[in-house]
Amino acid sequence: MGRVLLVFRLVLADVRRHPGQAGMLLVAITAATAALALGLSLSGGTETLYRQTRDATAGPDLVVLSPGADRKTLAALESLRRGPGVVAHSGPYRQYYTRLTAHGSTGAAVVHATGTAPAPVDRPLVTSGTWVRPGGAVLERGFAGAVGVEVGDRVTIAGRSIPVVGIAVTAARAVYPWGLGIGPGGGPSDGGGVVWLAERDTRALAAADLPVTSFINLKLRDPAGAEAANRHAPAWAPLFEGTWVSTRTWQDIAEQDFVMFRDTQPILVVGSWLLSFLAIGGVATLAAGRAVKQARRAGLLKAVGATPGLIAAVLLAEYLTLALLANALGLAVARLATPAVLNPSASLLSAPAGPSGDTVFFTTVVAVAVALLTTCGPTVRAVRTATVTALAGTARRPRRRPWLNGLSALLPTSLLLGLRLIARRPGRAFLHGCNIAITLMVATALLTIYAQPVKGYPGSPMATAARIAQERHMLLAVTVTALVLALVNTATITWTTALEARPTMAVARTLGATPGQITAGLSAAQLLPTVPGALAGIPLGVLPFSADEVGMPPAPWVLAAVLAALLATAALTALPARLAARRTVAGTLGAGAS
Questions:
Q1: pLDDT tier at 196 (50, 70, 90 boundaries)?
Q2: pTM value?
Q3: What are the residues facing 160 on neighbouring strands?
Q4: Which residue, among 215, 176, 171, has the nearest Cα to 194 in the 3D structure?
Q5: Burial per residue of 457-481, b for 16 or more beta-carbon CB atoms within 10 angstroms, e otherwise
Q6: Which is deepest, 43, 135, 333, 577, by most CB within 10 Å?
Q7: CA–CA distance from 538 to each of 273, 548, 567 (Å)?
Q8: At what angle do helices 426-451 and 461-500 cross, to 10 degrees?
Q9: How large is the C-alpha radius of gyration of the chain?
Q10: CA distances from 566 to 121, 439, 488, 534, 569 (A)
């Protein structure tokens, strides 16, 4: 316990002395693990939410719809009550195709005629207000959210103003905007939402000669065998004979709910890996920037008798502790964001549920790997450095190349200083270039998706709009997160470079360089790697798209993204560079000598 307590106290003391660096590490790994956990949680997540909703609302195993409401249609649907394995039913009911207007917006709707008492099968769960009563309407929650309606508002249905008395969810229909089931006459649906009205309130809709479909909800003894209930099955064929019907099993509904996430999951998974690369770049920069201080710290520990194992434990424990804390924060963020990602229309019940055990294990491994891969090198070098050398803080002498010195002497002073800083730390310049390349790649992918022609569901504009919005929102979220990490990494690289370059810049000032040239030189050291990184990120952002279908974003958009990267880098480097340039030469060289 003595060694563990000592390591804990040393780690805590170092975090207190460098809270900004610890915060940057937390932000980088938290963002990466949160995106990765979200991407992994999408697999099967929608089906889980649907099962929760189905259990809470006594959802049907089979919904059978047939165009019209004549006696023959109703009799055919009623005969399904005696179908093989049917243990309960509700209906037949009628649904009318119309339009709903609220707050100036109009959308397609299907009005279900229903009773005021709960049915044995399909009992929509009221999440706000009350269930249907004469003179009042209940809206499906996803539809209500889309048109901005709450309990107490009034909506116009087929020219009649009706108050909204409740908001409910159901598992008998797919999530908004696929609540219609089938379109008028059994044709395709253009998308829309569900409204429930009392039976007597739908008489006006019947009198208006609106398109109508009849349907019945069935509960089966064996829900897993619902897909066998069709007109081709010998036991069901006589019941379907002579009547056109469309069947929707609960498996079909669950599959339909997942449709808009088929393209979302790759966005989050690939985006999480890109964010992980950004996190690795940021952590590696922090570790490299602190290498000298860590070496001196290792020398102090050696001087008081610490073993190499204890020193390595102290140096690694800080990064591992912060990585595990960041992983926990990322998993918490994923848990809070999962319902919004899986259930954007709020048509399903989204009870809070944490990431699965596999997801927790995988994100933990990634977080620990990021910490270890980026800090093992500096830690090993610090442990292997001799005590006297570590305490003396001897600077590494750069290699002298006469031909390169002669060539660089012809450059302006600011550019010369920037190039020399890059030459002393080429790995850091490469990391910064990769940082910008990944950021521009994500931004270009976002612009490319926005430039694509809309390809959705034929005849279903509302469904197409919902899916496109979901994809773009997810990619926008990944892009914003990548931009935040890129900004943090750029600030980290600039500040670290400015701190390490203080003695070099002080010597340059003694030789005649002005503070303005020092500032420009430090900025140039970051801007020069930005250009190739930006140019490499643009084609990488287009590669994931098929060459024969891709629509390139307009050139001004791409140019604006590149200029934004350059301007952001210049802005982030200006302040640290200016502060470093304002430090007196005597103070800098005196501190370095001491």
A1: very high
A2: 0.68
A3: 157
A4: 176
A5: beebebbbbbbbebbeebbebbbeb
A6: 577
A7: 18, 18, 17
A8: 160
A9: 32
A10: 61, 12, 15, 9, 5
